[in-house]
Fold:
Amino acid sequence: MKRLATIFFASFIVNVSAQEVAFNKFYKTNKDKSTFSINLSASLAGSFLDNEDDGDIMNVIKKSSDFKLMIFNNEDHTISKDFNKFKRKNNLKTLVRVKDKDSKAELYFIKKNNYIREIIIRANSDDDKLVLFGLKTKITKDELSAMMSSSDINISSN
Structure:
């Protein structure tokens, strides 16, 4: 019985640690290099938004469980290189890429079992700042597409 309980407990620990989200690993590894970092729960992040005006964002927050924000001074591009390695290693899929002059933003996701399990946003500008925002979620591509298409955000080029 002790042996069975030990095997069960060891199996449980391995499964729990294997479920750690990919961006959480990047967050932990690079937290000390960031100029600002914060980890928020979904309930705390949702308290900053108005339910009526931010319906699309609230839908994502309701289906999310963890938010991580990191801001880096990326003058030597070390963090960009580290993130690119992380992106390749974790097979991040690019959903959206936007570029305007020297600034750009990219939206990546990790899909598992027909669900988008993580969304990671990377934004940087010509002043060598790099912002990374990651969230753990459980939505389908169709749900994300519907949220994006129903959004009233207009993207235009000058």
